[in-house]
């Protein structure tokens, strides 16, 4: 953490993670409604940009495509300040995905586990529609459904 706090302010921190209480333990602030990535930024004492959290590792590895290719997967990018968000959008583009500006960090709840765009390999128009269809009043419902599924995964014996 000290290296993060001491880093140059031009360094962009990307939050690629997702909160699962089954794995991470209960974080009261998140359970009470704080947006996950806002909690992360608060813990780090630095702004973060939320990206790469709603795609499966296999899709990230196998489904990148050149710009303009049919079927290119889009990834949401949310965060503040806008300049940092822009840098991450350029990164998303450079690794073979269409970046979708998902707004400020406050809006990043739309790409969290259980929401309509989570782990769906959507093209940009479908991703935008899925994000628009997310209902903030259902955050705890989204979280509970994915946490229940994750619990079985995290408790499974390792081979």
**N-to-C series of helices and strands:** HEHHHEHEHEHH
Number of domains: 1
Number of helices: 8
CATH class term: Alpha Beta
Helical percentage: 40-55%
Radius of gyration: 16 Å
List unreliable stretches of 5+ residues: none
Number of beta strands:
4
Biggest pleated sheet: 4 strands, mixed
Q: What is the beta-strand fraction?
A: 5-15%
- Distance between the amino and carboxyl termini: 32 Å
Task: Give the mean pLDDT.
Answer: 92
CATH architecture label name: 3-Layer(aba) Sandwich
CATH topology value: Rossmann fold
Structure class = alpha/beta
Which geometry do the CA atoms define? globular
CATH-defined superfamily: NAD(P)-binding Rossmann-like Domain
Strand order of the main beta sheet, please?
A: 1-2-3-4
Account of the protein in words:
This protein has helices at residues 2-6, 21-24, 28-31, 36-44, 57-62, 82-94, 124-133, 139-155; strands spanning 13-15, 48-50, 74-79, 98-101. The chain has 159 residues and is of the alpha/beta class. The chain has a four-stranded mixed beta sheet, with helices on both faces. It has a single domain (12-146), classed as Rossmann fold, CATH 3.40.50. It contains eight helices and four strands. β3 (74-79), α6 (82-94) and β4 form a beta-alpha-beta unit. The protein is globular, with a radius of gyration of 16 Å. The N and C termini lie far apart (32 Å).
